[in-house]
Amino acid sequence: MGLGRVLRDGAGFPAYDLRVVHATLFQRFMELILSDIHANLHALGAVLRHASRRTISRYVLLGDFVDYGVHPNEVMEKIHALEPKIMVRGNHDRACSSLVPIHHFSPVARMACLWTRHQLISKHSSFLGNLPMGPQTVSAPSLVNEAFFISHGSPSNEDDYLADEWDAQRSFRSFSGHLCFFGHTHIPGAFELDTVHDSMRWVALPAGKWFVLKPHCRYLVNPGSVGQPRDRDPRASFLYFDSEQWRVKLQRVDYDYEGAAKAILEAGFPKHLAERLFMGV
Q: Which of 34, 62, 189, 278 measures 20 to 30 Å from 69, CA to CA?
């Protein structure tokens, strides 16, 4: 009947496990926000294992699925398996699917991109090349007359880094809603614009704790990077978004850094691409 396991009471009549009934009837619309996986299969696996303990209603993916790491096809297979999902492309997704020239990349980034282009099987390369650019508008069943936005970089330009308050001011002018999730910088946190007091601040979201989004504020929220964090914390970084309670939770998880680094070195990549995984830079 959809209400969990049926038990039998002492008289033989059906009795439902009330814990299961409560979880079924009062289940929240929980979204998992991921960005900048960068072909790090070890990190993505740890994140998905953590998320498997919860009921995820939708996966929100902010781009840069590949490059720098050495498991692009394996990561894309896991991405394909996530349902339902909504996605935008990242700059490395475009580059690795041969959509743009890469002469402006650093020598290391160019080498990694060319290697990834060669490794990607056609279905994954085509899929990455057809991902939509941000910003995209996302509706949630639990929101009444409300939506949020997603982008890889700034919502004003998908390639721009949103790194300081000046960038944030420009970005807030480029979308009309209260909330936009973005990635690209690999730094978790949020820009909070108080529309009553006309003030802005950067919020360093506390890991493992819910942060309630204020109704009179607008937000640009970054989940950090799954596969290559750059905030000097090597743990994979991601967000849970509870749109019913209008709150987000930053989550950090350890993963097999040794395994990920070893794979990078065995592929012939520069040593510092492996070493940075231990330092979160």
A: 189
In a domain, 1, yes or no: no
With H, G, I as helix, E, B as strand and everything else as coil, classify residue 191: strand
Mean pLDDT of 168-172: 96
CA proximity to 36, closest of 90, 117, 97, 115: 90
Residue with tokens 């926000």, as numbered in its chain: 33
Look at the chain and report how many structural domains it folds into: 1
Q: Model pTM?
A: 0.89
pLDDT at 11: 47
Query: Which DSSP string do the residues of 104-117 spell out, in sequence order?
Result: TS-HHHHHHHHHHH
Confidence of residue 100 (pLDDT cuts 50, 70, 90): confident
Backbone angles phi, psi at 70, to 5 degrees: -120, 20
d(CA 136, CA 151): 7
Give the domain CATH number at 160. Answer: 3.60.21.10
Residue 71 lies in a domain: yes
Supply the range of the domain harboring residue 64.
Answer: 6-279
Residue 211 host element (H or E): strand 210-212
How far is 147 from 177, CA to CA, in rounded Å? 7
Closest CA to 280 of 242, 234, 247, 238: 234
Please check whether residue 158 is in contact with residue 152, taking contact to mean a CB–CB distance below 8 angstroms: yes
Nearest to 83 by CA among 51, 50, 58: 58
The pLDDT confidence band at residue 123, using thresholds 50, 70 and 90, is very high
Report the range of poorest mean pLDDT among 88-97, 124-133, 145-154, 220-229. 145-154
Report strand pairing: 14-16 vs 179-181. Answer: unpaired
